[in-house]
Amino acid sequence: MQRKYISKAVINRLPRYYRYLGDLLEKDVVRISSKELSEKMKVTASQIRQDLNNFGGFGQQGYGYNVEYLHTEIGKILGLDKKYNIIIVGAGNLGQALANYSDFERRGFYVKCIFDINPRLVGLSIRGIDIKFIDEMEEFIKLNQVDIAALTLPKAKAPQVAADLANWGIKGIWNFAPTDLHLTEDIIVENVHLAESLMKLSYKLSEKQNPADK
């Protein structure tokens, strides 16, 4: 059966639903209506219902949504009921920050190793995660199940490293290098451009401080 097409906008909202529902669980909230959820998320109730109807709806008329059930189901949609092993390529400030972020493990993402070319970093460990020479990466991937590679590399190096990772069997690349990666369709790439996000914030600040004449 052909899989239903889900728009990118809906997919982008799913992690937000998951995060907000997680916050509600921590506050022992048992159920919530689409209207109440819309007020918290600043998304219309109609949009929430449309988004969730793509996956079956999950709500009950007159009751709303069971928070724990909806949180669990969205987690399954996002693949968070599985475990993923990650390597980080680049042990600079950003790579080290990712390795230090223990919340990944709560979501099922486990950093197994970090790779770099700097001999001053190789041999150290971050939260028990070893830093190895990048020359050891191919062997490590072949001997261990690695699902995702996070790239925190300079722009010039990222494309070749990504191509090597794809050849060695990596199917998911989380790319923080300031360049878009273009690989074969069977490789899933999530490009994260921190500078672009900051530019969007700058635009919004500028727009607010210098509103157009009306």
The proportion of residues forming helix, as a percent range, comes to 40-55%
The CATH level-2 architecture of the largest domain is identified as 3-Layer(aba) Sandwich
Biggest pleated sheet: 7 strands, mixed
Beta-strand percent range = 15-25%
- Indicate the overall shape: globular
* Largest sheet: spatial strand order: 5-6-4-3-7-8-9
DSSP helix count?
9
Mean pLDDT, as a whole number?
A: 90
Total number of strands = 9
Can you tell me the residue ranges where pLDDT is under 50 for at least 5 consecutive residues?
Answer: none
In CATH, the homologous superfamily of the largest domain goes by the name: NAD(P)-binding Rossmann-like Domain
* Number of individual domains: 2
- CATH overall fold name of the largest domain: Rossmann fold
- Our measurement of the CA-to-CA distance between the termini, rounded to an integer number of angstroms, reads 53 Å
* Radius of gyration, whole Å: 20 Å
Can you tell me the CATH class of the largest domain? Alpha Beta
Overview of the molecule:
By secondary structure, this protein is α/β, with parallel strands linked by helices. It folds into 2 domains: 69 residues, Arc Repressor Mutant, subunit A, CATH 1.10.10.10; 113 residues, Rossmann fold, CATH 3.40.50. 43% of the residues lie in helices and 17% in strands. It has 9 helices and 9 strands. The strands form 2 sheets. It has a 7-stranded mixed β-sheet with strand order 5-6-4-3-7-8-9. Strand 7, helix 8 and strand 8 form a beta-alpha-beta unit. Helix 2 crosses helix 3. It is globular, with a radius of gyration of 20 Å.
